[in-house]
Design goal:
The structure is a homodimer of 622-residue chains. By secondary structure, the first copy, chain A, is of the alpha+beta class. The first copy, chain A, has helices at residues 30-52, 55-62, 77-94, 99-111, 120-124, 139-156, 161-177, 191-202, 205-217, 249-266, 269-285, 317-334, 337-351, 394-403; strands spanning 16-17, 23-25, 369-370, 410-413, 416-419, 425-429, 432-438, 445-452, 457-463, 471-475, 478-479, 488-494, 500-505, 510-514, 524-529, 532-537, 550-552, 559-561, 568-575, 584-586, 595-603, 615-616, 618-620. In chain A, a hairpin with a 6-residue loop joins β18 (559-561) and β19. The longest helix of chain A is centred in the first third of the chain and has 23 residues, at 30-52. The relative contact order of chain A is 0.10. β14 (510-514) of chain A pairs antiparallel with β20 (584-586) of chain B.
Chain lengths: 622, 622
């Protein structure tokens, strides 16, 4: 039973994913808890919304079973497909009924055209427009999500029917746009990674070849100028000639994920290097502290290097998810801990923050600051999570990630195992069963008990995150003097049941600063602890309070404190007493001043779970 | 011969505009030079573009004289109307041919429907959709610009034909949407101020009543949610209940301009106070140092208080123009120097910067920073001015302002005269002719010679801008010990020809800082001199240079220096030597450092006249 992104045995790979059921996360831990919430709240919520918002009726219009008008975005089918994918992973994780999946698969089969075409927007009202506006039609993007749902269903839920539908569509794509077809690409990448996954599932090489063909065709201006110029959809230059992440952030990370998949399956070290280079550029100058990506609302785009406004961070939930999925692929391909670090950062901040504690409302964009009097009109940076969006790409995307989250925690190799994400649970691989006990990321200690031991020497590799300055490892209570190599502490030995490995990753509260070119947060610092970014939130102030005029003294002590939501960081701030001054004044006239105030900062990902109101990650320094 | 915004004799007014021909600006001065450039370059350029971009053909489709497809935005007629208005003011200023105006007036007369309707988008392809989408159709906005062109033609160019066309349309509006008609408003304000101006021209009260009615209807949600919520088009609350500038910046300032016009003509002190209050809110928290307004690209909107990113400043040219026109109306209504200060700030920075030195290319948005490697894809913050835009509202808006600029320099009252904008030229009023000699804003000295003197005591009021800390006034060489009262130095005496008044407004280079809540420019300062904001521009560096890593020592001396473009400010900066660090790091690891470098800052409004490249107004402080 394979999980998301399952390279073939011959693929370039430094690490191999474990089977989908190799890791089980305890529901009492943070990550396992998220999976439970996803199953009990988010996924049912998504199913309800597909009915309430007409996505399913859209498909029933095609089969003549609905008289409703087409509802929602022209790519509304993708919400169905991502929910299908999430359902499949959830069945793989926890069992449960396949009834809904089967119903939808039957509906899709009935709705599909004889030639394999399937798209409820273009099959009823807009037949004449099929394939006519590939820049924005999202037709192949939609096909891609259908394919990914089918792959998940086949891998995790034993449903072959969806694969039949998906293959019919994929075969149509091969006929129309393969080597004998038109030279076109889709404005929104996604079908590339889907086609490689379908190739991995079926062994049918034309799918891989088509994905490769789309990558080769991209970057030559086939999509034209569009509304935002060719950089928007990464069609300004071939990936191999590119060294900068540009344009629409989700498109960019989805494209790179597909490129890694093609690179490892076609053994293209050059393409893999290009992806690493472009990705590195995003991390070096275009990524929020939360792992979020996308600095501009207008085109949902990356923007310039060092253009990282916290208030107008777009940081779309889907970009963080895509970034996580890309990092996972790069981790498998290269084995570099750097990519697991990025997965962790995105997961605990940019991704986790998008879902409410009850699992039923979501952020689409994930700003790092909301001001007092925030004008969060409409869906553009609301001050609270919304239960759904007119473009509802994010909620079901969260659902499919969370339903398969355990697949990303560990990898295997011959006689060894890497732990990348620390969470309470069980890992079963290579004849070993490991029990992991930890309250990470709230606690720095991770206890790993060998519950069953395989034979012979076996290497356990434990990731030491880059944020950690002091990692301490003991085996059965004895300190192991192993320095982390390339981000992992490795212990090779012959294990026996009952052995206990304890890793302590020191996580003092810490002030983090940004590169001096990041103008938007100059003179400010952020509070972090371990992988978690913290923020100030209005709800921790007295009713008439505000932290608009607070400053942080970098030398004042930080401490961990209890809080209703999660362990908080307690810090001392200084308040500017007089803020009645003009908007601009001669520098010489500016008068600083301060009075002391103490307050907790909470994990960023838990903000906006109380009353709506201001929040900020970056705090001005005195 | 009246100019733009001519209150009736019975209107509330602290100051009265002078006749359009009372002020003549010397072409050798900065403002007069802009007027000459406008006449010789910008206006002919606009005329050419109206043909090249199909705006005139659009109107000829209506009369059956063109087979072309409709071209451009659905409100493309407004480009014609604003160019007409500019042409009318220019004829009033410098004479010249009325032939083009007459041709277009004849075309409009022929194109107009029998009932008065005129809109080339809705008269051919979209007849069924007339008045059906007032939130975005811009039909009344378009009517408003037609009316303003007609008013200008009547006042400045003696053309009654346009007035006939405009009145027919205005009469249609009165019939359809007056007290007996539908309760509707237009999503884009503009018709309000136009209707009041038409009332002023014709004395026909239903025009004033309709403008008042539109203001009263606004703020009750008639326009619905739209794409951005009701705050976008200021329909969330009545003006009288509002105390904050919100939403689309151009709509907001145009609405407020119309509200002042209605307030002064209907003697509504309450409405005037509401406008002043809302306007004050914009100046207190939502205005760029350049006088630009609009912090968000997505909805071209104001954004939150203190949300003023220099790099993503939208600061649309039309918002600065609208802001200038609004400030003028408030100045006339209240006599407060504050409003003339705002006119000056917008004029020398936000407005002036939008036009290239050759008068033939323009910025639409006016950022205060472009980074190295700026992703100015498409029309969204290009790194150079463009010759035209798909939405070309700004260039002809500049043309109509510049063609009438002299009208804003001075005002009159019984036995007195105020000078608000200082520029070389001549002012003739109340039996007086004053010759003004100055190189302002490059030089702090303004010499005013009484060339002809009227009879009896006469008061000359000279504005002392708020940025000026030391104003020195002499009459015929003798120091006058008059303190500025409410922003004006007033001298009352019986004048004789040959009297010379000299005003010296000390304008040392100065560092300006922003309110500490303006997160985006924290720890930075801007260089200013007099009313002019300065910036660093790449073209003043060696070929491989960059100021991305420069910091300014607030204590280092600033000096005025010669420069190819205009007097520059010379300052010493410190360069951070090592900028290879990570995007985020523990605060404790950050290492400052510096080496010294000296460079000139140029007036912001002259940037982007050399090669494309980086620019910044706000400079980090050491």
């Amino acid at each position: 039973m394979e999980g998301p992104a399952a390279p073939t045995p011959s693929a370039l790979a430094a690490l191999r994913p474990l089977p989908l059921d190799a890791v089980r996360l305890d529901p009492g831990g943070l990550l396992g808890g998220w999976q439970e919430r996803n199953a009990s709240a988010t996924l049912p919520h998504c199913l309800d919304q597909l009915t309430a918002y007409g996505n399913l009726a859209n498909l029933r219009r095609v089969t003549g079973d609905s008289d409703e008008k087409f509802a929602g975005m022209w790519f509304a089918d993708t919400d169905v497909y991502k929910t299908l994918e999430a359902t499949a992973w959830e069945i793989g994780r926890s069992g449960g009924s396949t009834e809904w999946m089967a119903d939808i698969a039957a509906l899709l089969e009935k709705a599909q055209d004889a030639d394999g075409y399937l798209n409820s927007y273009y099959q009823v009202d807009h037949r004449d427009e099929q394939w006519s506006d590939l820049g924005f039609s999202h037709e192949m993007y939609t096909a891609g999500h259908l394919i990914q749902a089918a792959v998940a269903a086949a891998r995790a839920a034993g449903s072959p029917q969806l694969v039949t539908v998906a293959r019919r569509f994929a075969d149509l794509l091969v006929r129309k746009f393969g080597p004998d077809g038109a030279d076109v690409i889709d404005g929104h990448p996604e079908v590339e990674t889907a086609l490689v996954e379908l190739y991995r599932l079926t062994g049918h090489e034309p799918y891989l070849a088509l994905a490769q063909r789309f990558l080769t065709l991209r970057g030559h201006g086939l999509l034209g100028e569009g509304r935002f110029g060719p950089r928007y959809w990464q069609d300004h230059a071939p990936l191999l000639d590119t060294d900068e992440a540009t344009g629409h952030a989700v498109r960019q990370v989805y494209l790179l994920a597909g490129a890694v998949d093609v690179a490892v399956e076609t053994h293209s070290a050059e393409l893999l290097a290009a992806v690493e280079r472009i990705w590195e550029s995003a991390l070096a100058g275009k990524t929020y502290l939360t792992g979020g990506m996308g600095s501009r609302h207008k085109d949902e785009g990356f923007g310039d290097n060092y253009e990282l406004p916290p208030d107008r961070a777009y940081a779309e939930t889907c970009a963080a998810i895509g970034s996580f999925q890309l990092a996972w692929r790069l981790l498998l391909a290269t084995g570099k801990a750097r990519y697991a670090d990025e997965m962790e950062r995105a997961l605990y901040n940019g991704i986790a923050g998008s879902t409410a504690r009850d699992g039923r409302s979501f952020f689409y964009s994930n700003p790092l600051q909301l001001r007092t009097g925030h004008d969060g009109s409409h869906e553009d940076t609301p001050s609270q999570r919304l239960t759904w969006y007119s473009c509802a790409c994010c909620p079901p995307n969260l659902a499919r990630l969370m339903a398969s989250l355990q697949a990303y925690a560990a990898t295997g190799f011959e006689n060894g195992l890497q732990l990348h994400l620390y969470a309470a649970g069980t890992v079963t691989a290579g004849g070993f069963r490991l029990g992991v006990r930890t309250s990470y990321p709230w606690d720095e200690r991770i206890d790993i008990t060998v519950e069953e031991a395989g034979k012979g020497p076996f290497t356990l590799a434990l990731r030491v995150p880059a944020w950690c300055r002091e990692a301490r490892l003991t085996v059965n209570g004895s300190l192991v003097r192993a320095g982390a190599q390339e981000g992992y502490l490795r212990i090779t030995r012959t294990w026996k049941a009952g052995d206990v490995v304890t890793l302590v990753l020191a996580m003092p509260p810490r002030l983090v600063t940004a590169h001096p070119r990041v103008d938007a947060v100059r003179g400010s610092a952020a509070l972090t602890r371990g992988p978690v970014v913290y923020c100030l939130e209005h709800a921790d102030l007295a009713a008439d309070g505000s932290f608009e005029d607070w400053e942080l003294d970098a030398s004042s002590p930080l401490s961990v404190a209890e809080h209703e939501l999660a362990p908080a960081i307690r810090a001392e701030f200084r308040r500017r007493p007089d803020t009645s001054g003009p908007l601009y004044q001669p520098l010489a006239d500016a008068t600083p001043g301060s009075e002391s105030v103490t307050a907790p900062a909470i994990p960023y990902f838990l903000w906006a779970n109380r009353a709506p109101g201001p929040m900020r990650v970056w705090i001005p320094l005195t």
